[in-house]
Amino acid sequence: MTAVTVRVPAKVNLQLSVGPRRDDGYHDLVNVFHAVSLFDEVTASVPVGVPPGAGPAVVSGTATVTVSVEGDSAGQVPLDGDNLAVRAALALAERAGRPVAVHLAVRKAIPVAGGMAGGSADAAAALVACDELWGLRLDRRELLDIGAGLGSDVPFALFGGTAVGTGRGERLAPVPVGGEFHWVFALADGGLSTPAVYGECDRLRESTGEPVAWPRADEALMAALAAGDAKALGVALVNDLQPAALMLRPSLERTLAAGREHGALGALVSGSGPTCAFLAESPAHAADLAAALRDADVCRATVTAHGPVPGAEIVAG
Questions:
Q1: Are 192 and 273 in contact (CB under 8 A)?
Q2: 220 and 86 part of one domain
Q3: What is the pTM of this model?
Q4: pLDDT for 159-201, tens place per residue?
């Protein structure tokens, strides 16, 4: 085998409840993740010469990793050791304990710095692809453990479906879902820094002086998911980071308002933003809503998707 391709989904946070800041700078979270049908693909292959478009080789121990990226947002993705997929391959190579070399070709559709965990998704895909390419055959629990060391959202990209994440979001439990949900994502120009959004969240909370409650999974949201009730789910969507994202990017309020005006069942900033997510009644409603948002000129582009979908999975190789 000389190449393995893995498809991996974006996520939307149906509930993102942020607890008090801990001594280590992180926050305890209750994070209801939902994987949607907007996918990146990562192909891990044995390099022959210098692959076209590849960044500089990243060498660690006996491992050599290169990466190339294609897609509309390719220019925003690092091609060196700051790339999370590269870091994932290096972490797995350390587990392999033998000389390895790999090229990662990333085909991006998930927005970069858009609050939909595109970088974490690519890291998860790299773990699955390299595990198969190198014949390691690690079980999914071992990959989840490696992923947790790379970032809080990486384990869910492996896990997929719908799940409650606790701790920093890396401890996952599956959530029963009684149907399929239809989404519209309004993509913004540029991105938002996740650390900056968390920092603004802390600043806003400190300015009020009110104590921060310990986060818990919302019972109404869990019931709506189990019943497959899109209207009830739309009412229950919540994101504690949204006020901070709107403070840093006030134009997102216009995007959210336009979605509500055109019949979205629910509207929120996805994760740390700036992508905005809108829940629709059906595929036809999602298509109409996407067109209305484009016509309203409140976003760079729109995409439609459905969920839940599986996590990272091999599609070729």
A1: yes
A2: no
A3: 0.93
A4: 999 999 998 778 899 999 999 999 999 999 888 898 999 999 9
